[in-house]
Design brief:
mainly alpha, two-stranded antiparallel ribbon, 2 helices, 61% helix, membrane, transmembrane, transmembrane helix
């Protein structure tokens, strides 16, 4: 597992960053108004986790395919 030095060129990184930041910014707005484990809470949590996984995937270098 190696660090991807050109992570900023990855679509997964930018999509993950947008989803991660929007998930973080929505938690304070959703949490006080809705009970925990409501539908919007789960949607926000899924967006946060999916964004985090895309961020990590963008930072890790993928093995090169050789024939």
């Amino acid at each position: 597992m190696k660090f991807n030095h050109q992570f900023y060129k990855s679509f997964n990184f930018w999509l993950g960053l947008i989803m991660f930041l929007s998930g973080i910014s929505l938690f304070p707005a959703i949490a006080p108004n809705n009970p925990v484990f409501s539908l919007w809470w789960w949607v926000n949590l899924a967006e946060f986790m999916f964004g985090l996984s895309l961020l990590i995937e963008g930072l890790i270098e993928k093995p090169k395919k050789t024939k």
